[in-house]
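Model it.
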Amino acid sequence: MFVKLYNQIFGVFENIQSLFLLLARLVLAYGFYDPAMKKWADIGSIAQWFESIGIPFPIINAYMAATTEILGVVLLTLGLFTRLISIPLMVVMVVAIFTVHLGNGFGAGDNGFEVPLYYLLFLGIFLTHGAGKISLDNFIFKK
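Modeled.
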């Protein structure tokens, strides 16, 4: 009886899983939007900054980071190639954590690695679970 009740209760939550995946994708896309636009607004300064913190090939990496982030905004919003775009976005977050945020500790208020870690975890969820039913991925690649 307990198993049946448990399955009924949590079956309801499975029905709204895709809604939460959609909301998470939209929030994450919004979070990438401003940094991507700031990078594109002054890519030269971003490349200089990358060089100052020891990132190799700073011009190339500035363009790669900016392109990855803006592409991430579009694809996460649409739920298109969600698993695929999650991989380079995760790389961007790992680089950000180790080159910028780690030395500041954990707290977001101190520019620590808290927020990029959350982004990394969300991206890991999208990589492993996909975009959900409310996505172009589901519409195009439905199993």
